[in-house]
Structures are given as structure tokens and as C-alpha cells.
Write a structure and sequence with these properties.
Elements (H helix, E strand, L loop, with lengths): L1 H19 L5 H9 L1 H8 L7 H27 L3 H13 L9 H15 L4 H21 E5 L2 E4 L4 H15 L20 H11 L5 H31 L2 H13 L5 H9 L4 H7 L14 H6 L3 H23 L2 H12 L6 H22 L4 H8 L6 H13 L4 E2 L9 H22 L7 H17 E2 L9 H18 L4 H24 L3 E4 H13 L5 E3 L7 H4 L4 E2 L4 H6 L5 H12 L3 H10 L4 E4 L1 H6 L9 E5 L4 E4 L2
Parallel strand pairs: 6-7, 6-8
Antiparallel strand pairs: 1-2, 2-5, 3-4, 8-10, 9-10
Helix pairs in contact: 1-2, 1-5, 2-5, 3-4, 4-5, 4-9, 4-10, 4-15, 7-10, 8-9, 9-10, 10-11, 10-15, 11-22, 15-16, 15-17, 15-22, 16-17, 16-18, 17-21, 20-22, 21-22, 27-28
Length: about 650
Amino acid sequence: MEFKLAAAGALVLLAFAGFFIPALGILAVVAALYGVPGVVLVSLLGRRLGLLEAAVVAVTASFLVSAHVAYWVAVLFGYGRLAVVAVVVLLCASLALARLQDVGVAVGKAIGKVSAGVRRYALLSCIVLLFLASLLFYYHQAFWTPRGGGFVVGGWNYGDSFMHLPVIRSINEGNFPPQTPFFAGAPLAYHYFVDLHSAVASKFFGGGFFEVVEVVRLENSLLPVLFFLAVFLFARRVTGRDSTALLAAVLVVFGGGFAFLKLAQAVAGGGDFLQLAGSEPFDNDWQFFQVPSLLGGFLLTQRALMVGLPAFACVLLLLVAAWQARDEKLYLSAGVMAGLLAPFHYYAFAASLFAIAVFLFSRFLRDGSLPARRVAACFLPAVFSLPFALNALATTSGAGNVKLAWGWLAPGDALGFAAFYAANLGLAFLLAVAALLLRFEWKRELLAVGAFCFLLPNVSSLSGTVWDMAKFFTFMAVPVGVMAALLLDKVPRALLLVLLVFIVATPLQMLYWHCNSEWQGLSDKEVEAGLWLSRNTPADAVFVTGTEHNVPVDSVAGRLRVVGYASWTGNFGLSSAGREALVAEAFCGSSAAERRQAIVSLNASFLYSGPSERQAFHCTHGEGLRKVFDNGISVVFELP
């Protein structure tokens, strides 16, 4: 008791000290946002989870709980640095609630278990450390990295980076409850809590552009590692074998389709292998190969999904642990993690609730009864997420985005449909289908969860972009990887190595392309303009800009734009056509009075003209306005 109170008190003092000297608060911030809430949750479970299981669940749960706490503190008291410090203090103080009955003995046992398990988990430890090191290297080399006169943002999915940074930066500038940064005035109907989490972590240290980038780099590196470990632990519970579980985790995270055959064909035609592999993403070509590999296409670029995937895997882990131990607290823990998920990732929320329903129904079929308290424990925590989920559903359905969409993006004929998914989902998927011929425990549950995640995108669309439903295939990858690993366990090791080459070839090629990408999101001059705007314009200023993703107004300065990239606004259920017409008038109206009236109609007070604006609007920008900034590349005008 004395130890945990002393620890909580020390962290609280560090948080207070960090308000004046931010460097002193690093330990308190890390503990509050990435550890303490989950430790409290896991400690209430007693010794029902193994050491590694408890650690992975604790860190994942800390992301969920800390962002929810931050949201409600900000709603009640406003968002600012003082509120952020209050969140850190509150979360650090919650350590006093942890049920650590005999900390000295517990720590001693934990150290003993770690020491005894070094040899047992040596291979897993090496893989995880290598994976983490490579992700850290990647994000520091290819994510908002200064190079060649600008900031490099690697990968074909660079647009998502430009969507999340405006959310984080604008929240840190006081945009709370958040308006859509690239559709000023409209509430943000998006699962933005991972960005709120990053905003809180960076705001403690100032919350500027560079602080945000560093926090995002670190979180983006940590979350895929959590997912890998959560899949390993879930698979170990299901299969009972460490080797099979490790194979399953590799198949899930590093598995991909057959797009590498396009590279092989190009090389066979006389192309240079390294030059081709580094210059083109053969995966997700928007033609036949529409489903990107999970690592290259999702875990490196989709921030919301980065939290949704490990949380989903942890829900599955807790459900199996609850089943095996017949323990109501574990069911409640699964319900809590699922119930907090919606504002992090709506699809993960839906997939997790369906997985819970599958396990409860399966348990009912086996036992002939289903205690009401178990159902309540699993589903009542969802009340924390319902306001966010229902609001998003109402917004997207009101825009006509919720509809039947048969066959997703696959060909309509049966043979073409089968070939499309075999090629896109890859060898691991085909092996999982073949594994259904085997007899193994948990087949019914794995099949039900996987089938739901496959069928839903093939019968409906919940987004303005049908392709977006592909994210359900990432949740399907978890049961698919486990079933494929069970089958691969039975093949000779030489054949296993050959099959693994075919499974990982596409994502490894995509990773190589990511790392070699020199695409610049913004030039140095554009970043300079964004930094000037953050210092010299009101935090709630609204700007007229072009409709590109990458504009320093929101990505760097955290200011609001009247309208941004059409695919983003469409996915959010927002109609941008009217605003886009007024933006065209603001830039190229027939008279200064007409241009001025367009800006006023958009409730804006500034106009930004950069390279993309000059390319889109061939006219003289800013006539009748007052020029307040010009560095030769970016020009800012203010409404006089």
C-alpha cells in the first residue's frame, strides 16, 4: 500500500513540476498515457493473465482509457495545457486504486518469470525488438522528415498523414470539441481519439508542429508492436503452442497477397529488380490488386486502425481467457476494451462487439445457459461509445453513404470474384480456408468472426468511399492467421519456408518502396509559412485554401480551412460542392467585391496561396486583400 501511494505521489509531483519545466514531466506523461490506467485495470483482474498478457493489455487499455479521460476533462473544463496537466495528474493518481497487495513479492516473482522466460521467448524477443527498431527507423526516415529542401512523407497513402496532423494540431490550438479542420464549422464526426491522445501527449511539451511529429512517430512505432504481441498471445491461448502462435503473428502482420508476381513479371521483361521494387507499389494498384497488405498498407499509415487492431486482438485474447477460466472479470475486461473503442475506430468497435456476441452465443450453446450479468458485463460498457458511434452513423447515413454494395470491388462473376480475393488476400487466406477441413478447438468461433469481417464489406458500405470497407479485412486477418498457422504446423519445415516466402514477398516489397519514397509533402518554405501562421494569426482563424490534402494552414499551423480534400469530406458525410464553388470565387471572382463577398460568405478572414492554389486557380490572387506574409512560395492575405 505504501509503495503504490508513494509511486502515485511521485508521479503527481513530476506532473506538476512538468508544468513549469516540461522535461521533468516526461516520466509522468509516459506513465499516465501509456501505462497507469491499464495497470489499474489489469491489477483488478488479480492473477488471471500471464505477465506478458497483462503488459500488452495494460498498454493497449491505457491508450483507450486515457483518451476518454482527456475528452471528458476537456468537455467539462476546456482544452488547454492546464487541462492536459490535470489529465496527467488524475491518471497518475489513479495508481493508488490499483490492487497491488504485496508489491515487493509481486515484482520479485515477475523478475523471476522474466529471467526464466528469456530462453523460452528469445526468438520472440528478437523479432519484436527488430520490428520495433525497424519501425522507429522508418518513421524517423520517412515520416515528416526534412530532406532535399522539404519534408518527406513516404508511401502512397500519404493523404492520411495530412488528415491526422490537422486534427492533432488544431486540437492543440484550441479546436475543442473539434470542428472538422478542413471543413470549418462542421463537428468532427470521425474516430479521432488516437489523435486526441497524441494531442494530449504533445501539448504537455508545447503542442507545436515538431512536438506533434515526434509523438506521432513514437506512437506509430509502438502500436504495431502491440498488435503483433496481442496476436501472438491470442494465438497461444487458442493453439496452446508458442511456435504456432509465433507463426500466426508473423502471418497476420507480415502476410500479403500475390501482387509481387507483377514485380516478377516486370523483372522477367528486362527491368532492374531493385529499381522497380523501390519505384512502384505493385500492391494496392487500384486495378486488380485493391487490398493492400496489412503492414505496408494499413499499419504504417492508418493511425486510427493502429489502435483498433491491437484493441481488437486484446478483446479476442480476453474472451478466450475468460472462457478457459470461466471468469466474469475477464468478460468484463473484454467488454470494457470493446466498449471504449468507437471513437478510436468505428469498424474495430463493430468487429469487437460481434466477436463478443459470437463467444457468448457459443458458450450458451455449450452450457445451455447465459448469465445476464455476463451479457451486461460485455455490452454495457459500450454506452461510453454509443454517442460517438450513433453520431457518426447518423452523419454518414444522412449523406447517403450507408447502402448495400454487393461484392465490394471484386468482379461480378463467380470465377472472377474467387480469383480476385485469392490474389488479393493471398496464400495465408487460402491456407486458412483449407484449414477448415481440420478438426481443432475454436474453429467455430474463428470461422464466425472471420466470416463476418469478410462478408460485411461484400454486402454493404458504411463510408463515402467503398474501398474504405477493406479495413474489415484487417480484422479478418487475425482468425485467418491463426487457422493458417495451424495448417502450416503440419507441413515439413522446408516447405514451410518456401510458403512463407510467398506469403511475405508482397508486403516486404511494399515496405522497400515506402522506405525509398522521396515524395515531399511540403517544402521548407511551406512549413516556414505554417510556423509563421501559428505564431501570428488567431487560433480560431478560418482560411480559404485550395482543396489539396497537404496545406500548411492546417497540417503545420493547426488553423481551420473552409474546405479541403473532397474524399475526406465525402467520407465524413459532408457535401463540399457549394464551398468549393465559393472558394473558386474567392480566388478568381470577376471583381474585388465578388472575391471579398465569397470570403465573407465562407466565414473566413484569411486567404492562403501556395503552389497547389496557383496550379488550381489561374488568376491573380489576393486583389483587394491585405498581404501579411510572402516568402516567395507561400503568400497569405487577410480580409481588411
